Amino acid sequence: MTTSDDFPTDNLDHAFSAVWRMLGEGVSDRRRVFHTPALVSVGLDGWPKARTVVLRSVDRENATLRCHTDLRSPKVAELEGNPRVGVLVYDPGQKLQVCLQGTATIDTNGEIADGAWASSTLWARRCYAAPLAPGTRTDAPFSNLTEALVARQPTEEEAEGGRGNFATITVEVVRVDWLYLLATGHSRALHVRDGAQWTHSWLAP
Ligand SMILES: Cc1cc2nc3c(=O)[nH]c(=O)nc-3n(C[C@H](O)[C@H](O)[C@H](O)COP(=O)(O)O)c2cc1C
Question: Distance, CA 200 to ligand 1 centroid (Å)?
C-alpha cells in the first residue's frame, strides 16, 4: 500500500501518465502493491486463471510489462494457446484500481530472456532450480527446493542449472481501465491502444 497522492482525475493524459508512473514505481519499489499484480489468463480448460506475479519491468513507450516465470508452469502453455491476458492491481492507499488487457509473449532465449536472467539475483534464480514443475502433485508438503538449497542461495553454477526453466512473459498492453475512488464521486476512464496511438475516454464509474 502507498500513501495517497492526488490522482489527476481532471485530465485524461495526466491520468494515463500517472498509471504508467505507478506501474514503473511498482518495478523498483517492492513495498508498492503495483509490485505484485494479478496476471489473469484463460486456462486450457476455458476457465479464467489468476495468479500473483512480480512486475519486473515496464516500458511506457512500447506499452509493455514484463514478469518472469518457470517455463514448466501451466500458465506458459496457457499463454502459448491463448496470449490474451488481464493484469489487475488495486492500491488501497491510492484508492486506485487498474485493469489492463494485453497479449503475452513468452521468451526463453535471446536478448530479452538472457538480459532478464543476467539481471536476476541468485536468490531469485533459486526458484528455477526447482526439481518439479510448479503445480506438480506431491504426496506430502514439499518446498520444491533441493535439500542443499533449502537454507542458502545457490552458487552461480547451481543457479545456472535452472536457466533452462527460466522464461519471461512480456505483456503488450492494449487497454487500460482505471477507477479512482473518491468520497465526492468516483472517477473512471478507459485508454485503448490503436496501433501507436491511444484513445482516451471517460467512463461512468
Ligand atoms: C507475492 C508473489 C509473487 C509471485 N511472483 C511470481 C512471479 O513473478 N512469477 C511466477 O511465475 N509466479 C509467481 N508467483 C507464484 C504464482 O502466483 C503461481 O502460484 C505460480 O506461478 C503458478 O502459477 P500457474 O500454475 O498459474 O502457472 C508469485 C506468488 C506470490 C504470492
Answer: 32
Amino acid at 190: L
Is 69's C-beta closer than 6 angstroms to any atom of ligand 1?
yes
Cα distance between the two ends of the chain: 22
- Look at ligand 1, atom 19, and give the residue with the nearest C-alpha: 51
176: nearest Cα among 16, 66, 40: 16
pTM of the shown model: 0.95
Domains and CATH numbers, the chain: 12-203 (2.30.110.10)
Answer yes or no: is the C-beta of 53 below 6 A from any ligand 1 atom: yes
In tens digits, the chain (205 residues) has pLDDT values of 555 567 999 999 999 999 999 999 999 999 999 999 999 999 999 999 999 999 999 999 999 999 999 999 999 999 999 999 999 999 999 999 999 999 999 999 999 999 999 999 999 999 999 999 999 999 999 999 988 888 888 898 888 899 999 999 999 999 999 999 999 999 999 999 998 899 999 999 9
